[in-house]
Amino acid sequence: MHLSDFELLSFDCFGTLVDWEAGIWSHLGPLAGTSPRLLDRESVLEEFAEWEARFEDQNPWDRYPEILRRVYLHLGKAWQCKLSKITLDHDADRFAHSVGLWPLFPDTQAALAYLKNHFKLVILSNVDRVSFSRTHTSLGVVFDAVYTAEDIGSYKPDRRNFEYLIHHVAKDCGVEKSGILHTAQSLFHDHVPAKSCGLANAWIDRRFGLRSSGATKEVHFKPKIDFHYKNLAEMVTAHQAEIAAATVENPQQDS
Question: pLDDT tens across 227-247, in order?
Fold first, then answer.
């Protein structure tokens, strides 16, 4: 199997293209600092992962800002944070609408610009349309399609999101399932359900070398991984190597 076998890359956005852990920590870190508990970055991200997944499962029709707000308020209470109700509500609202301010990974823009020249690009995200729109411009490319949890009515890892992707990519982009390579960081949100739907996958392992899963829940079993890269820059390098090898084998194609 080669990257060049595929016509379209379907991307998770937050966690893969956007450093969502940095964005989450920038808000939950200060909240944790008001708790009598000693909470380090990893434990904060792990508790976020647990409650984000739980609230998404319980409230699939809620838009993502409401999910974030629920998580913030729950953690503030669970951590016995020393904040007034007014302050906690205000800070929860700030967190809920912070998605568009979360930073891109350093390699994201250049990688997307390169990949856009070789593949159709699609977003499959757990956020809502408004939250994604605030990030879209900074990504620097026009995607061939954008599908959000708000559009679908459920949150990854629900299989419905991937069935929706497969159906709509065929209709909107003219690409069948065999031509899709799902590209994402989260094993929990993306790779387990993607493989269960028969999609090929590329794991962008942004937490390579770290022992915990951070802001995504642990999985009970690791799915088959077709391509594994520490970051998007590695994926670009691998694709460039494929092109170079093909050119050496078939020099007449280099025209």
Answer: 999 999 999 999 999 999 888
